[in-house]
Amino acid sequence: MLHNLTRQLKTLAQGNESYAAFNQRIVNTKMPVIGVRVPDLRRLARELAPDMSAAGISKLLTAKNKSFDYVLLCGLLITHARLDDQAAIELTRNYLPRVDSWAHIDVFIEKKRRFAGEIWWDFALECLQSEAEFTVRYGVISLMTNFLDEAHIGQVFAALRNVRHDGYYVKMGLAWLYATAAVHFFELTLAELENGHIDAWTRNKAYQKMRESRRFTPEEQRIIRQQKEDANDQQTNHFSSRHYQGAGFSPCLQEI
Question: With 80 as the cut, is the pLDDT of residue 145 above it?
């Protein structure tokens, strides 16, 4: 199975040498990048998923010689295979220690139509307390993707107040979540951003994303602009974007 997957990935990557080099910089991975485009990875995962068991995916995750593309494919197999929620969570626990890129998280997570919300909620909160940067990002993006609704928004904000990880990719994920939440919960989100629990750098990045969005009214944009100016006055920037390629608010690798 592993040999066949490796061969299929190399076939899908043929002629994509320049894309592979470009993507290596964007996803900021230390793994080799073969150059398979995300739509092709998704298509392959959907083709393989009906025949994949939890044990089969677990075995693939333990393989040694892995590329960025291979690891992401394993994540997509977890997403698309016919697994019960608990099995999917256990596989995700095995997947997360193997990732080294924001793209391994953001492309992997998809909105769930039918799922046992309580156990996925608990798992997301568990991930928020991890010491591993990309595991925490998983928790953040999971909450953003599946729990930014009327029933959970207050609980989401409360959970994020306990995030203590100072990693760049965690902070960017938090900023992305707050900017997304503001579309539907504008006043509540701005109040949360100003309540003192969120550092100035993350707050400023959230306002920056809101300013770039077309989903706010002119009056909301005026308020955002003023809030961003106030955040700029307080910000102490500990990060240099020169060291972090990609890692933005909306990766959209499938469009590359």
Answer: yes
Q: Which of 184, 187, 188, 182 minimizes the C-alpha distance to 205?
A: 182
Q: According to the model, what pLDDT value does residue 183 have?
A: 96
Q: Cβ neighbours of residue 241 under 8 Å, at least 6 residues apart?
A: none
Q: In this predicted model, what pLDDT tens digit does every residue of 46-101 receive, in sequence order?
A: 999 999 999 999 999 998 878 999 999 999 999 999 999 999 999 999 999 999 99
Query: In whole angstroms, what is the distance from residue 18 CA to residue 9 CA?
Result: 16
pLDDT reported for residue 256: 24
The number of angstroms, rounded, from the C-alpha of 193 to the middle of its chain's C-alpha atoms is 21
CB-based contact 38:9 (threshold 8 Å): no
DSSP of the chain: -HHHHHHHHHHHTTT-HHHHHHHHHHHT-SS------HHHHHHHHHHHGGG--HHHHHHHHT-SS--HHHHHHHHHHHHHS---HHHHHHHHHHHGGG--SHHHHHTT----SS--HHHHHHHHHHHHT-SSHHHHHHHHHHHHHH--STTTHHHHHHHHTT-----HHHHHHHHHHHHHHHHHSHHHHHHHHTSSSS-HHHHHHHHHHHHH-SSS-HHHHHHHHHHHHHHHHH------GGG--S--S---GGG-
0.70 cut: is pTM over it? Answer: yes
10 Å CB burial of residue 242 (0-12, 13-18, 19+) is exposed
Tokens linked to 251? 């990766």
Rg from Cα positions in the chain: 19
